[in-house]
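Pilot study result, target chain (103 residues):
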Amino acid sequence: MIGNAPYSPYTDVPGWLETDEEDTLIEYAKTVPEGGVIVNVGVEFGRSMAAFVKYAPTATVYGIEINPLDAYSANLTEAANCRQFERQGDARSTEEETAQQSY
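Predicted structure:
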C-alpha cells in the first residue's frame, strides 16, 4: 500500500479517517441495498473507498478525486482484489484535450 497516512484496521489501506469515522462509514455501507450506488468524493489514498467496497459488496462504488495519482489506484486495486476496479477520466487533461471536448 502507498500513502503516508495511518492504515485502516479493516482494509489495511491508508487514509486520514479516524477509526471511529471509518466505523460510521462501514455501518452506513452495510445498509446500502443490493445493487445500490455509493459515491465517494475525495478518495485520496482510498481508505474510505476500500471500506465501501468491502462492506457494501453488491453496490456500485464510484470515487471522485480531483488529484488522482496512479499510486492511489494501486491501493484500491489491491484492497478490492475480488472486485472490478476501473479508473476513468482524469482531471489532469491537457489544454489541447480540453479544447477538443464538446459541451
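One observation from the pilot: Residues 96-103 have pLDDT under 50 and may be disordered. A full batch analysis is planned for the follow-on phase.
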